[in-house]
Specification:
The chain is α+β, with helices and mostly antiparallel strands. The chain has one domain: Winged helix-like DNA-binding domain superfamily/Winged helix DNA-binding domain (Arc Repressor Mutant, subunit A). 57% of the residues lie in helices and 16% in strands. The protein contains five helices and three strands. The two termini are 24 Å apart.
């Protein structure tokens, strides 16, 4: 039951798009905004609002990369990686409470 409490406490990662962003960022050093748009198949405005919520929670950093033109990049913070790990652990524990079919 503690795992269910943990899941309900984290309102930031309880959103499927934000969880998807974090799962995509975990194994990567940085990701460009455009790449996230393609992977998640969301609108720019929708992605921007989810990134701002994650940034406000301290889970990600949003910054500019100067290449041929300025681009927006995102990287996961240590706090974001830790909180995502905790959330996934709680999710696994909660799923283990569901009896297997058969």
């Amino acid at each position: 039951m503690e795992s269910l409490r943990e899941l309900s406490r984290n309102h930031v990662l309880g959103n499927p798009i934000r969880l998807g962003i974090m799962l995509y960022l975990l194994p990567r050093e940085k990701v460009l905004f455009k790449e996230l748009l393609e992977v998640l198949d969301v609108t720019p405005g929708n992605l921007d609002s989810h990134l701002k919520a994650l940034e406000k929670a301290g889970y990600i950093e949003i910054y500019k990369v100067i290449a041929d033109r300025p681009r927006t990049a995102v990287r996961i913070t240590e706090k974001g990686a830790e909180e995502t790990g905790k959330y996934l652990k709680a999710l696994r524990e909660a799923l283990s409470l569901i009896p297997a079919e058969g």
